[in-house]
């Protein structure tokens, strides 16, 4: 009986540690996702604000610590590419988050199953 209790205690302790680590990872993923969404929104707003400019308007793109003169079409293409990159990053982060949530749920289910087996074994032993 004491052996069963030690196994359950060990399983609960491992699950608590794993749950804390997983929730930290999930919160980090949420923060990264928010940052990427903010960047995407910035690119979208920039694209909207340049949509009413004429093609002969001089536009500058920031590259590092300098600005380069570029044409409007290439700047718009660059903004679209950055938005697509943000979409892919958001999708990847969401998949990671779903995986972590699923693995945590699977571990909780496994622990419930272990507790249920212990209860059934105790009932049969009596």
Automatic annotation (TrEMBL):
It comes from the Eukaryota. The gene is Dmoj\GI17311. This is Prefoldin subunit 1. It comes from Drosophila mojavensis (Fruit fly). Heterohexamer of two PFD-alpha type and four PFD-beta type subunits. Belongs to the prefoldin subunit beta family. Residues 72-117 form a coiled coil. One of its GO terms (molecular function) is unfolded protein binding. SUPFAM superfamilies: Prefoldin (SSF46579). The keyword Coiled coil applies. The keyword Cell cycle does not apply. GO terms for cellular component: cytoplasm; prefoldin complex. Pfam families: Prefoldin_2. Keywords: Chaperone, Coiled coil.
């Amino acid at each position: 009986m004491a052996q069963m209790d030690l196994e359950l205690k060990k399983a609960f302790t491992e699950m608590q540690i794993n749950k804390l680590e997983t929730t930290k990872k999930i919160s980090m993923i949420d923060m990264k996702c928010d940052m990427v969404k903010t960047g995407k929104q910035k690119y979208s707003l920039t694209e909207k604000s340049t949509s009413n400019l004429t093609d002969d308007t001089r536009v500058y793109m920031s590259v590092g610590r300098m600005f380069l003169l570029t044409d409007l079409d290439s700047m718009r293409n660059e903004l679209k590419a950055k938005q697509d990159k943000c979409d892919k990053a958001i999708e990847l982060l969401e998949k990671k988050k779903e995986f972590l949530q699923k693995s945590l749920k699977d571990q909780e289910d496994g622990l419930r199953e272990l507790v249920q087996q212990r209860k059934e074994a105790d009932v049969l032993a009596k």
